[in-house]
Design brief:
The protein is α+β, with helices and mostly antiparallel strands. The chain is built from five helices and seven strands, in the order E-E-E-H-H-H-E-E-H-E-H-E. It has two domains: 143 residues, Transposase IS200-like (Alpha-Beta Plaits, 2-Layer Sandwich); 50 residues. The strands form two sheets. A five-stranded antiparallel β-sheet has the order 6-3-5-4-7, with helices on both faces. A hairpin with a 2-residue loop joins strand 1 and strand 2. The longest helix is centred in the middle third of the chain and has 25 residues. It is globular, with a radius of gyration of 17 Å.
Length: 208
């Protein structure tokens, strides 16, 4: 199969872009951490606004406006996650957070370079850089989830789905955005009123 510099594919409901020699802002969450009706509402709002852009804007401005719309959609999605921390919060357990941290670090230097992450009670934000894709990005995420869910379910003495199968991945377009994302990741526990200072959150990481 011929390699392509940019690949576009769908993994369930969200669009995912892959471009080599790029950085990605990743978010994945616990299964059941947000209600289906809310996700459907957000999805329908996004699709309606996207259609309005496509119908009213020329090709040159569509890409930029859809990109901004995707970021706005993610902001709403993340805010709802932060508001529902008490509903599904397995990751508040240090043993579970440690298994997730280990899974992220295990692939560092193999599938990607791990730049930063924050493990929240019900979701994870991570910033990675990929030079060459050895496999599709969603396959890499499956590996992380498979390892951490197996270990976490053992600790919790439970079975069944641990992570939501969908991931949010956002390609970073500039150095300015790269730096803003790192600040966003580290500020998430403060924004959610879990700690007063970002440095007080145990499960944040930045490559030295």
């Amino acid at each position: 199969m011929q390699n392509m510099d940019i690949k576009f594919f769908y993994r369930r409901n969200l669009p995912h872009f892959q471009k080599e020699y790029s950085s990605y802002f990743m978010t994945f969450r616990l299964y059941g951490s947000l209600p289906t009706f809310l996700l459907n509402r957000l999805k329908n709002e996004y699709l309606l606004n996207k259609k309005m852009i496509v119908d009213s804007e020329d090709k040159l401005s569509q890409s930029k406006k859809i990109y901004e719309l995707q970021k706005k959609y993610f902001g709403k999605f993340d805010n709802y996650l932060d508001r529902s921390l008490s509903a599904m919060n397995y990751l508040i357990d240090d043993r579970i957070a440690e298994s997730t941290s280990s899974a992220l670090h295990f692939l560092d230097g193999k599938d990607y370079e791990l730049i930063s992450y924050c493990i929240m009670p019900n979701h994870v934000h991570a910033l990675i850089t990929v030079e060459r894709f050895l496999k599709p990005l969603y396959k890499t995420m499956q590996s992380i989830k498979r390892f951490s869910s197996r270990e976490s379910n053992k600790i919790l003495q439970r079975s069944g789905a641990f992570w939501n199968p969908e991931n949010y991945d956002h390609i970073v377009r500039s150095q300015e955005e790269y730096e803003k994302i790192i600040k966003y990741i580290f500020n998430n526990p403060v924004k959610s009123n879990l700690v007063a200072r970002s440095e007080d959150w145990k499960w944040s990481y930045l490559k030295g």
